[in-house]
Amino acid sequence: MRDEVVDPQFESLLAYLKDNRSFDFIDYKRSSLVRRVQKRMSQVRVDSFGDYQDYLEVHPDEFQALFDTILINVTSFFRDKPTWDCLAAEIVPHIVQARSSRDLIRIWSAGCASGEEAYSLVMLFAEEMGMDKCGRWVKVYATDLDENALSLARHGHYSAESLKSVPAEFRDKYFEAAGDGFSLTADLRRIVVFGRHDLLNDAPISHLDLLCCRNTLIYFSREAQDRIVTRFHFALKETGYLFLGRAEMLLTYTDLFVDKHPRHHIFAKVRPIQARHRLMALSRVWEPTLEDSLARDLSLKEAAFQALPGAAVVLDSDGSLAAANDEAMSTFHLENRDVGRPFHDLELSYRPAELRSLIQQARTESRSLGVQDVHWRNLDREPIYLDLMVTPLLDESRQWLGVEISFWNVSERYQLRDALERSRHEVETAYEELQSTNEELETSNEELQSTVEELQTTNEELQSTNEEMETMNEELASTNQELQAMNDELHQRTGELDRTNAYLESILGSVDVGVAVIDKEFQILLWNERAADLWGLRSDEVVGRSLFTLDIGLPVHDLKTPIQETWLRGNLTGDKMMLDATNRRGKAIEIQVTRFLHEAVETGPQYMVLLMEEEKA
After folding, report:
1. Any idea where the domains of the chain sit in the sequence?
2. How far does Cα 50 stand from its chain's mean position?
3. What pairs with residue 248 in β-bridges?
4. Distance between CA 111 and CA 59 in Å, rounded?
5. How far apart are CA 240 and CA 341, in angstroms?
6. Mean pLDDT, consecutive 10-residue segments, the chain of 617 residues?
7. Contact partners, residue 517, CB within 8 Å, separation at least 6
8. What is the pLDDT of residues 212-229, one digit of tens each?
9. Looking at the domain 8-70, which fold is it?
10. What topology does CATH give the domain 504-614?
11. Partners of residue 400 on adjacent β-strands
């Protein structure tokens, strides 16, 4: 994902909010946070973050308005009804049945806003257990950062509009008419405890059967989400459930949670398990037998020895090579004349692994010893991985006869593991991008819903003043005309830009010189067709990557110091150097690399152009 640009004035504003009001927004997503603050700035007609900080110092009442804008309290009773139906049918009964006779059912509604979801949870448990038992055995902790929202939640008073999503039987059972709206019954309100809580800085509530945190994680950065999800895992019982919003997924936390209902984003806690290494089971088929024919017996043993699934050698009691099967002879390039030689005189005794100390240890301890994951290059320079086992050979009286050394080529396993790791990484990356996209979409939807609610309030006020509305309509019509004119101009400039880009691509494609454009961070901004032809990497494979991470025939690391010197000198006339390289066809070539700086009028050099021209013989 692209790094977000840090605005020093905005960071100073966040530090000011933390120091003066103890609201720490440092771990919130910058894009969403900037949008919310700018929305409030437009309402008070302030242009810059620095000016808005000054405005807060002069107008302390503005803090609450800002926090109301940032902490988008968009919620409702039984939001996303199919999800709540699944919770009522599958999860709540399981929690109630699993409760021991003396334990409370503990529930945490994190990011509860004005309390609708916390009260929705209580209603589900009251329906399952009955109101009396629910009042005695269920406790719901509802937390949020917004004190105003918590104050509304404690009162439990809601408008008739807010109760549209509440089933009719629930309205009759759990609500009472009060003034211009409805209030929850006192018995139900007493089950919920509301309090201010910071998910990142305050200790989590523990021993939970159910944790509801819907559409709250989407406002935090990836690092903050990691910390919060880990805290949620700690807070839940081993049999606990985590209930998230529709845009929140835990695809990268499979070691902590398992998705019980993927469509409804209900997760079960994964119990911690300790990884165990499996021991390799070895079967031995070389045992002395009593046969009538000694020759036949020896032939059978020889055939069994040759048929072992891997290379194997046998040393006698004096430490000399007594036998080696065909696989060992081939793998380690042994010859018949090596049989009978002292093992320590053979290269095999120390390569691919130091075997002499292992043999001595196996003899001393009278037990088999194994070594895994031995990396080795044979005489063909082919990298392979081996597992080996040193097995002592003892007679019936436990006297030392010699030792067998077995080797297994596990290179294919490593290749499969590497391929699996690459695939897993690609899948995780895709999942993270998908989750980030979903979170951004849900954030936008939350902001849009909040904006719609604000517009509805504004519309009600505007209806009482028709004259003011007419005036605003005229202003809006005038603004619309200006926007249309700006839009037409933007379309025209966009067309000009497209034509310019096409012209530039045509020029760069036609030149017989490799062209690469990099910024000060050495990231590639442009890569023409000639460069792709030289080094075998297309433009879409390199743009956005660092020049020095490319694995091509050009020794890019030899360019690092010259490039840095060109930046420092601000040389605009072009520096040249010759490099030995290998093109994409494997042919050795000589390349002349010329460096030019592109200088902006105000900010100085911003981009560097690299011309890569093959010297003809």
Report:
1. 8-70, 81-269, 294-408, 504-614
2. 34
3. none
4. 28
5. 66
6. 62 82 71 82 86 85 77 79 92 90 88 90 94 92 88 90 90 90 92 90 90 84 86 91 82 82 88 38 32 44 62 84 79 78 80 82 82 72 79 78 83 80 82 78 78 77 71 83 90 84 73 87 89 89 90 89 84 81 89 82 72 82
7. 524, 525, 526, 598, 607, 608, 609, 610
8. 998 788 778 788 888 899
9. Chemotaxis Receptor Methyltransferase Cher; domain 1 (1.10.155)
10. Beta-Lactamase (3.30.450)
11. 394
The end-to-end CA distance of the chain, in Å, is 44
Give pTM, 2 decimals: 0.47
Contacts of residue 31, defined as CB under 8 A and 6 or more positions apart, other chains included, come to 4, 440
Tell me the C-alpha to C-alpha distance, in Å, between residue 11 and each of 70, 232, 443. Answer: 15, 28, 21
Half-sphere exposure of 573 (CA within 13 A, CB side): 1
Tell me whether the omega of the peptide bond preceding residue 555 falls within 30 degrees of 0, making it cis. Answer: no
Query: CATH topology of 294-408 equal to that of 504-614?
Result: yes
- CB atoms < 10 A from the CB of 74, how many? 17
CA distance 291 to 534: 71
Nearest to 16 by CA among 61, 50, 39: 50
Q: Which two tokens stand for residue 408?
A: 């297994």
Q: Each residue of 69-115: pLDDT tens digit?
A: 776 666 889 988 899 999 999 999 999 998 877 788 999 999 888 89
Cα three-residue angle 214-215-218, rounded to 5 degrees:
135
Q: Which two tokens stand for residue 488?
A: 């037409």
What is the C-alpha radius of gyration for the chain, rounded to an integer number of angstroms?
Answer: 36
Question: What pLDDT does 421 receive?
Answer: 83
Of 601, 612, 427, 588, nearest to 516 by C-alpha is 612
C-alpha angle 144-171-264 in degrees, rounded to nearest 5: 55
Q: Facing residues of 614 across strands?
A: 591
Q: Please give the order of strands across the beta sheet that includes 175-178.
A: 157-159, 181-184, 175-178
CATH code 3.20.20.70 for 81-269: no
CATH number given to 294-408: 3.30.450.20
Helix and strand numbers (H, E) in the chain are: 20, 20
Q: Do residues 77 and 181 touch, judged by C-beta distance below 8 A? A: no
Q: Which residue has the tokens 């803090």?
A: 63
* Alpha-carbon gap, residue 118 to 125, rounded angstroms: 11
Q: 456 and 277 in contact (C-beta within 8 Å)? A: no
Residue 87: what are its φ and ψ, rounded to 5°?
Answer: -60, -45
CB 205 within 8 A of CB 106: yes
Q: How many residues does the chain have?
A: 617
Structural tokens at position 125: 């448990």
Q: From CA 104, how far away is CA 482, in angstroms rounded?
A: 63
Residue 402, Cα to own-chain centre: how many angstroms?
Answer: 53
**Is there a contact between 115 and 195 (Cβ–Cβ < 8 Å)?**
no
Tokens of 273: 């398990």
Helix axes 411-463, 30-44, angle to 10 degrees: 20
Return the pLDDT at 604.
59
